[in-house]
Amino acid sequence: MSPSTLTGGHKAGLAQTLRADSWWTGPALTATILLGFITYSTWAAFQANHYWVDGGAEGFGGYLSPFYSPVLLVDTQAEGSVPAHHSWFGEKPDWWPSSLPFSPAFLILAFPGAFRFTCYYYRKAYYRTFTGTPPGCSVGAVPQKKYKGETSFLIFQNLHRYALYFAIAFIFILSWDAFQSYFRGGKIGIGVGSVVLTLNVVFLSCYTFGCHSYRHLIGGKMNRFSGCAIVQTRHRAWQGCSWLNTRHMLFAWVSLFGVALTDVYVRLVSMNVIKDFNTWN
Amino acid sequence: MTMRTFRIWRGDATGGEFKTYKQETGEGMVVLDVIHRIQAEQANDMAVRWNCKAGKCGSCSMEINGKPKLACMTRMNLYHPDETITCQPVKTFPIQKDLASDVSWNYEQNKKIQPFTPKPRDPDGKYRMSQADVDRVQEFRKCIECFLCQDVCHVLRDHERHDAFVGPRFLIRLASLDMHPLDTADRIPKIKEEYGSGFCNITRCCTEVCPEHIGITDNGIIPLKERVVDRFYDPIMMLKRKLFGGC
Amino acid sequence: MVDVSELQTVEHDILVIGAGGAGLRAAVECAQSGKNTAVICKSLLGKAHTVMAEGGMAAALGNVDARDNWKVHFRDTMRGSKFLSTWRMAELHAKNAPERVNELEEWGAVFDRTQDGLINQRNFGGHRYPRLAHVGDRTGLEMIRTLQDYGVHQGMEVYMECKALDLLLDADGRIAGVLCLWRDSGRFLLVKTRAVILATGGGGRCWRVTSNSWEYTGDGYDLAYQAGAELMDMEFTQFHPTGMVWPPSVRGTLVTEGVRGEGGILLNNKNERFMFNYIPDRFKSETADTIEEAEKWLQGVDGARRPPELLTRDVVARAILAEVKAGRGSPQGGAFLDIANRRDADFIKRKLPSMYHQFRELAEVDITREAMQVGPTLHYFMGGIRVDSDSQQTRVPGLFACGECSAGMHGANRLGGNSLSDLLVFGHLAGQGAVTYTNEDSGAPPAIDDEQVVRCIRFATDILNREEGTNPYLLHDKIQDIMGEHVGIVRTGEDLSRGVDLLEKLQEDVQQVKAHGASQFNAGWHEALDLRPMMLTSESVARAALLREESRGAHTRLDFEGEQENWGQVNIVIRKGDEGMEVEKINRPEPPEALASIAFASIEDLESGKVNS
């Protein structure tokens, strides 16, 4: 019996297992995609340009990258940025230290980031991938002196619902962006960009409204689903949320790709690399 | 009939080793059938638990090629004919002998849980609940106590926090009580403190191995965690409770 | 030499042997009455065969059809039993079942609900109205988990993986204790107790094709018989009509009657609903004789009679066997059971989830798309330990029995769903009986006979210690060969005599059984220890079946067809005599007039209130 083999023939130690299948593909894929997304979104946020495709009159009707929405402050000097009146608080203030890179995205990415970081699905994905607790089922976890789970440092995960509140606000904001993109110069129409923006909102909604915290708050916390009209409405909402919730992983990834690809699309159109097909031109 | 190779752990708490057995197998067999044949023909004294042989009692839990499984529901045609099949007892609990582990810890946990505490019956001696009310609870009550979730849970399996965490099986038992429309007891403080809901980091291995396909994590543990949040972590809820009462 | 004083010894007021539904219900009753109660079981707690019960528990709650009441349930039970149930037991059962079910709900069972929020009830073979309280098709699991979770908080001791080897009697023939064996450590446990409740289930493992698990080796029959109690009705072994037939390794695994209750039909390989050809005269007036009428019944049309698929189990099992023999069976030697063409996939998955799961995983059959193949499987012992109807006490003072291991409740044939309610009703009564007994018998505790203990221990350890002997697995196989071939669904005197002879011959080998290895968790040793009860069970079934020269319910004699009136007046009783097994006919007492008038009334008269009782 080698020292790493326990009674019962189990192996001890990180990533030790008798599983013969490729259990590591899940974590490997997760690592690749998550790191890829973080790299791209950071890069895109640092660009601080080409996040807007101008729609002409009054700024109404353009395509705004979800990374940059809502535009709180804007540096109109940058290429492909929104007009000043389209920003909630106008121009970038003069006192902004020049040593600090300015990007409207920095103010924003933190919120969806927090939502995803504390998400009950992503937690599984990154605990398995990055903290090895455990790397796979019946695969040796990272040895720890006294494992505390989410009772100690990670206790903040319990505030996921507050991240949810912000995420829901973003659904409204992005819906407004998508809605606007169907009107250009006072004329109703449709472009590939508006479809992209709409799909992005749909995917994000499917992800956000399938959230475990949302499912709890909307109805899951009740112990009786029959009764007055309000209870029954909440039950129906809970059922709908449950449908999305069983697909939470799917929408977590689809919406992640969706957001990144929407930014890519807006960026490329804004840079005139590709042309947006639409009914206005 | 084909000849298959099995590697089965033989031994007890003092030690042991994998022994290799070659056994003829027939059509439609499951792993437990082959183990029974080996037991009858080659290793009379081999210890293995089983009862119903139909995935309903949860006795024949073991690890087959490294995965926690019910031997009676693991069909041989899942494996390549040349593949050696390795069978071990579950890891999380002390080995008794061969494929049997001492799972008595689980029965101790069950005793700690405050039992169902119903409100009084209706005047006609009956209880009324709608099917929608009990759907969730019925899902959890499908549990056959095979303890595969307990075995695979890294909090118990790798980190051995048996002192602080009751494990997935008993969290869903708690969920079945807490969501029961007739139950009147408040178990939330204990779920946080004594039963250790915070130790679960929702990596969902319990759900993956559950032979009854119970949504242990998403339908049971996470809702409990959210109920704990309501009580102990969410400042707005705590304020609301202060102002308007209730729990 | 064994020193009895050095054995691990515990003392209890009442020891329950068996932790299925009946054992746990009895133990709860004893513990709640303040008795120092213990339960021992061969497996882990909660794994007893009750978990396999699928369809539901019969109780005339009247939640789905308000016309139902205890009298109709009682009448159904008596007719189903071919009038061989003990009248008082059938009465107690029908009257008490609703309260036992309500009580189970109060203890935490979560039954399926009606639209009004009450406990839902489903149709089942032989029951006139939807009567089975159920949880999908896992009612037994719900029951055992409820009793287990409730029971452990009532202050009872549970000794798991512990086998009762022998009952110990004092000089006056009263129960004094039980010698047990810890299966894991291989050590002996001496339980001193005033009363024992046997709840050990049946003995299905004597047959190869059975729905029973390894535990069902007739332990209770053997324990009671050796202690001097009587067995009754042992010839009535129920073959459930629908067990799986493929793959070979799961042949016999139960397919719930609930499939038919939810609308499933039986077909032969010519796609005919053959059950219409097998309706016995007694049930003709209450059974649909055309497919149209059967369909109407399924749709809930008032006045439509029940489809013949829901006839009693003995009738359906024999019909399937006859179809197979006539060459109209399914490819794998059974009949087709079709629900796929009757109900939509969602309904099937919701109402029969574990059947869906079981066929998908074990046979790679999707029951929402194709028909199952099913055939008869040994399922249940109607007979068993003879007890007093009210107290469940045997003729041995301090020895009680309830559940499948006791006799009387089900007569010649048990209705589906009457078993789970039987467990609750008579578990409860046996608990009360034992409590009363221990209250009255409060003198000095009965003394254990050390010599008997030593004898019992030696009997067990000899199996390990002898130099050589027969392989216990092989012997078990032989018992199954004999029972399958000579004591099957249809029997003849010749076959049965041959079976008895073969069993007698086999006895010599059984005496010389040898288990290899150490005493710790030794499966071979446990198998060897189960041989004695299996031999006793097999022999008593064969002998009783040989004596009963008629066909009634689950007992079918090809050489004596049909029910004989004189045989309806007797039960067959078995006891240990000086020269081996004594088999005797005893006369059944006359039924109380009030009960007889209910049982023999036409359903119209009963429901219109013309029957006084």
Task: Write out key terms for the chains shown.
A: mainly alpha, two-stranded antiparallel sheet, 3% strand, C: 613 residues, alpha/beta, Flavocytochrome C3, Chain A, domain 1, Methane Monooxygenase Hydroxylase, Chain G, domain 1, seven-stranded mixed beta sheet, four-stranded antiparallel beta sheet, 36% helix, globular
Describe what this molecule looks like in 3D.
The complex is a heterotrimer of chains A (281), B (247) and C (613). Chain A has 281 residues and is mainly alpha-helical. Helix content of chain A is 48%, strand content 3%. Chain A has eight helices and four strands. In chain A, strands 1-2 form a two-stranded antiparallel sheet. Chain A has a two-stranded antiparallel ribbon with strand order 3-4. In chain A, a hairpin with a 2-residue loop joins strand 3 (183-184) and strand 4. The longest helix of chain A is centred in the N-terminal third of the chain and has 23 residues, at 25-47. Chain A starts with 24 loop residues before the first helix and ends in an 11-residue tail after the last helix. In chain A, 41% of the residues are buried. The model of chain A has no long low-confidence stretch (mean pLDDT 92). Chain B is α+β, with helices and mostly antiparallel strands. Chain B has two domains: 2-101, Beta-grasp domain (Ubiquitin-like (UB roll), Roll); 104-244, Alpha-helical ferredoxin (Fumarate Reductase Iron-sulfur Protein, Chain B, domain 2), CATH 1.10.1060. In chain B, 35% of the residues lie in helices and 16% in strands. In chain B, strands 2-1-5-3-4 form a five-stranded mixed β-sheet. In chain B, strands 6-7 form a two-stranded antiparallel ribbon. In chain B, helix 3 (131-140) packs antiparallel against helix 6 (168-178) and helix 6 (168-178) crosses helix 9. Chain B starts with a strand and ends with a helix. Chain C has 613 residues and is α/β, with parallel strands linked by helices. Chain C has helices spanning 21-32, 70-80, 87-106, 139-151, 219-227, 258-261, 281-284, 291-298, 313-325, 345-351, 353-363, 418-440, 450-465, 472-486, 493-511, 523-529, 531-547, 593-600, 603-607, and strands at 8-17, 37-40, 57-58, 121-122, 132-133, 157-159, 162-169, 175-182, 188-198, 231-232, 237-244, 265-267, 335-338, 372-381, 384-385, 399-401, 490-491, 556-557, 570-577, 580-587. In chain C, strands 1, 2, 6, 7, 8, 9 and 16 form a seven-stranded mixed β-sheet that branches. In chain C, helix 1 packs parallel to helix 12 (418-440), helix 5 packs across helix 17 and helix 10 (345-351) crosses helix 11 (353-363). The longest helix of chain C is centred in the C-terminal third of the chain and has 23 residues, at 418-440. Chain C starts with 7 loop residues before the first strand and ends in a 6-residue tail after the last helix. The model of chain C has no long low-confidence stretch (mean pLDDT 95). The chains are: A mainly alpha (281), B alpha+beta (247), C alpha/beta (613). At the B-C interface, helix 1, helix 2, helix 3 and helix 6 of B face helix 3, helix 4, helix 11, helix 14 and helix 16 of C.
